[in-house]
Amino acid sequence: MNNIYDNEMKIEFLSKSNNEAFARISVAAFVAQLDPTLEEIADIKTAVSEAVTNSIIHGYEEQMGIVKLICKIRENEIFIEVSDTGKGIENVEIAKQPLYTTKANLERSGMGFTIMESFMDSIEVESVLGLGTKVTMRKKIKSNSNKEEDFAVSTTATAIRGEE
Amino acid sequence: MESKFEKKDKRLIFKIEEDIDECSVQKMRRKLDNEIERYMPKEVIFDFNNVSFMDSAGIGLMIGRYKLANMLGGKVGVANVPSPVRKIFEMSGILKIMPEVEIEKGGKI
User: Fold this and answer.
1) Hey, are the CB atoms on B21 and A17 less than 8 Å from each other?
2) How confident is the model over A67-112, as pLDDT tens digits?
3) To the nearest whole number, what is the mean pLDDT of chain A?
4) Domain boundaries, chain A
5) Is pLDDT at A62 greater than 90 in this prediction?
6) Between the CA of residue B13 and those of B1, B16, B94, what are the distances in Å?
7) Is A7-161 in CATH node 3.30.565.10?
């Protein structure tokens, strides 16, 4: 077993939309060990929700399939992988464009990938038509000591500049 | 979700009280559309005070209701937007077409 990660978890669930909440809450609980801020948790939950929704409504459409969710932690960074064995994406670059959607009739906004990109540090999408899609995202959680340091540095800088 | 229709101002207020994702919007859509069609309000307000989570499904939900209310001659506003929801709204530009209203203080769109 490779041990470059400090911790790891894997969940598989049916592609039912009521599992979206289960998926994002599980990830939030797992990432809690890094002591994230409320905003960092909200960002991660939203990104997970977008990726899982894509697998359910685009990857598997009306059919049932398995969505696989893997989370890994290395130091203060979380890696999240959401994959399906659904129909795949024909052109990933086009699919990632803001407002692009193939399901406007379902009131999909086409903002899923845009949200994942802006709420996480990075996102990679691998997809093969007919075989499925894998989305890998990562985000660094600022550790508590970093947060205090940031605060100390900014206070010191302010003091040096003689402001406030 | 609770809804309240204020006859005097023809204002319909929806208090959303659950996570907004692809799963929950499917159920919400029907109820929202029924009420909007029934009351033909001049103003529709979505109160997010008790919403702790919203993803992009919420954008589609809001724009869909905006189109319907507009077609029936009404405006749409939002109230008590918590910060995680605000982030999604700002990213999508929704606040430009659905202004924030302070309903507790008797604010109007």
Assistant:
1) yes
2) 999 999 999 999 999 999 999 999 999 999 998 999 988 889 899 9
3) 90
4) 7-161
5) no
6) 10, 10, 18
7) yes
Domain CATH number, residue B49: 3.30.750.24
Please state at what angle helix B57-71 crosses helix B22-39, rounded to 10 degrees: 10
The rounded distance, in Å, linking the Cα atoms of B53 and A46 is 8
Interface touch A118/B91, C-beta < 8 Å: yes
In this prediction, residue A164 carries a pLDDT of 43
- Which residue of chain B has the CA closest to A38? B84
Residue A87 forms contact with B (CB below 8 Å): no
Asked if B86 has any chain A CB less than 8 Å from its own CB, the reply is: no
Show the domain range for B70.
Answer: 2-105
DSSP A32: G
Count helices and strands in chain B by DSSP H and E runs: 4, 4
**Residue of A46 and A143 predicted with greater confidence:** A46
Q: Which residues contact A142 (CB under 8 A, 6 or more apart)?
A: A37, A40, A76, A150
A18 labelled catalytic: no
CB atoms inside a 10 Å sphere around CB A17: 17
Give the mean model confidence (pLDDT) for residues A129-139.
97
Alpha helices, H only, chain A? 19-31, 38-53, 92-96, 112-119, 144-161
A2: annotated active-site residue: no
State what percent of residues in chain A have pLDDT above 70: 85
Neighbours of A19 (CB within 10 A): 18
CA dihedral A27, A31, A33, A36 (to 10 degrees): -140
- Count structural domains, chain B: 1
Of the candidates A20, A24, A40, A54, the residue annotated as catalytic is: A54
